[in-house]
Structure formats: structure tokens, C-alpha cells
Amino acid sequence: MRIAIGIEYDGSAFSGWQIQDGDYATVQGTLEVALSKIANERIIKCQVAGRTDTGVHATEQVVHFNTTAKRSMRSWVLGVNRYLTGGTISVLWAHPVNEEFHARFSAQRRRYRYVIFSRAIRPSFLQKQVSWESRSLDLVRMQKAAQFLVGEHDFNSFRTVKCQAKSPVKTVFSLEVSQRGEFFYIDIEANSFLHHMVRNIAGVLLMIGKGEADPQWAQQVLDEKDRTKAGKTAPSGGLYLTHITYDAKFNLPQVISRTII
Questions:
Q1: What is the rounded CA–CA span in Å between residue 97 and residue 65?
Q2: Checking DSSP bridges between strand 183-190 and strand 169-180, what pairing results, if any?
Q3: List of residues 6+ apart from 149 with CB closer than 8 A
Q4: What 3-state class would DSSP assign to 48?
């Protein structure tokens, strides 16, 4: 039987999603142990919609796994959460799927939100949940710059040198910058993302918001196709994976979350 589950997690507690060599706490490793206990199987291996880096959060990551265990969907949710102690990972929903479904390869779109806290004084309670910027930001300048990055482009300037993607060409369906009080939000949806792509886009928009470059600089960085021509990579703590879009035929019980912070 193949089961899809939606999970949320606080990435500050983990060295990313993927299991690594060495004594590192990972989302994958922690989740697989809990699933295996409920299934009473030696080990359950998970496939994920999108691997997140150290410190990156998720409000709805999608995972699938295969099992011979017979459990109700309610039992998968409540039972696994019972073993996910510490409150850093929670299973939100579980849904049976056929073998056609694959958490990664069936995904059509992915949505991220980057959260910036703009205030002269650093935050005391949100240090690992937001990116802090002490200087004032110009929302309109950031919004103008964002529009240069919408569409199908070569995003080579916005990926890390360690990125293993076969092609730097991605389609950004939407890139919106908004503000609520001292919080700035960068919401981006694309068919898929390169390694550090969202954080590098956030770094460029931050420089433009601070007045260090004109909005048109975003287009220039894109055209250069050279990572060294872009700005600094924004910190991981402000990044959240918020939604994965699948074909409606899978009937997954998903909800797009925009209520972060």
C-alpha cells in the first residue's frame, strides 16, 4: 500500500531533510523511525516532494511511503505524531494513493515563502524563524524587481555552485512581495527550484529594497547567468516550503498556508 502524508516541521532543529553520514538529526531520519514504529516494520523509506536544507522550514511538505501495514489514515496521523516528540515535526494528514503517485515526480508546482523581519533592533523570539534586516526596506522597489524574474528563465545566477540540477531553466509562475507591519513576505511559485534559488532571489531583492541597487538590477543578474554577479545568499531561517501542487486526480487533502508569523 502506498500512503501520502503532509507534514510540517521547524527546520532549525535539523540538518536538512535528507539523511546524512554522521550523527546528524534530519527530518527524514526522524520521520522514518516514527513511521516504522507505527507500521511495526524494520524500516520505512520515504520519498519527498522537495529536499530542504539545514534550517529551512516547511508548513506542508509532502512525502510518500510504501507499507504492508494495515492502518486507518487517522491512525497514521495520530500514531506517528505520538512518536514525533519535541514538537518539531507534525503529520498533518494521510491519504492512500496508487503506485502512479510519486511525491517528487508527480509534483507540478512548488511554493515557498521567505519571511523578513525589518526593524532596527534584532528580534528576541524569532531568530530562527525569520531573516532579520536592520535597515528599512522599500516595498515598491522590491515588487518592481520581482517582476523581472517571473516566467521561464535561465536561473544560473541564482543557484549554488554545488547545485546538481541538469538544467538551470525554470518557470516562475508568480513572485509576490508584500508587507504586514515589520514583516516582509516573498512568495514564489515555480515548477521546480535550483539549490538555494529562493534564498539567492531573496538576497537580490533585499539589496534592491535597501537601495543598494535599482530594480532593473534583477534583470541584469538574470542575464549574466553567473552566480558571482548576484548578491549574498539570504539566511535559511526565513525560508518556508508552503505548498506542493499535484493533479486533482490524486485528491490530496492539501491547504495552502499563508499564515506564517
A1: 10
A2: antiparallel
A3: 172, 175, 201, 218, 222
A4: strand
pLDDT tens, residue by residue, 39-66: 999 889 999 999 999 999 999 999 999 9
Tell me if the domain spanning 109-241 has CATH number 3.40.50.150: no
Cβ neighbourhood burial of 203 (10 Å; 0-12, 13-18, 19+): buried
- How many CB atoms sit inside 10 A of residue 211's CB? 12
What is the value of pTM for the model shown?
A: 0.94
Instruction: Quickly name the fold that domain 2-106 has.
Output: Alpha-Beta Plaits (3.30.70)
Domain spans, the chain: 2-106, 109-241
DSSP codes of every residue in 165-215: -S--EEEEEEEEEEEETTEEEEEEEES---TTHHHHHHHHHHHHHTTSS-T
Residues acting as catalytic residues:
53
* Grid-cell match 509576490, residue found: 176
Strand partners, 117: 132, 183
pLDDT single digits (tens) 23-42: 889 999 999 999 999 999 98
Distance CA 12, CA 237 (A): 7
